[in-house]
Design brief:
Number of domains: 1
Number of helices: 4
Number of strands: 3
Length: 92
């Protein structure tokens, strides 16, 4: 299995962000508001979303099915800036 650095080098992060945003916009009504505050890790190729309490758990669940991919991760009910601020505040 490739390591994380190798996966990142092979990924087009802008494409993942753009496609992930489109996919989330098309499915968010299935999750918001009932899953507000939880996280989705989205595989942009299969369009499959993995739901969990934390971003790390969502990615871990997604990696069980796709160990060599990078996922678009979103906090349900929050915009990107709010999600980033939340991540920084809770990383300290």
């Amino acid at each position: 299995m490739p390591d994380n650095d190798e996966i990142l080098k092979q990924s087009d992060l802008q494409r993942i962000a753009d496609e992930g945003t489109k996919i989330y916009e098309s499915i968010k009504s299935q999750y918001d508001p009932k899953e507000r505050g939880r996280f989705l890790a989205i595989d942009i190729d299969s369009k499959k979303a993995y739901l969990a309490e934390t971003s790390a758990d969502a990615v871990a669940e997604a990696r069980r099915n796709h160990p060599d991919k990078i996922f678009y991760v979103v906090k349900i009910g929050f915009d990107v800036a709010e999600t980033m601020v939340h991540s920084f505040l809770h990383a300290a």
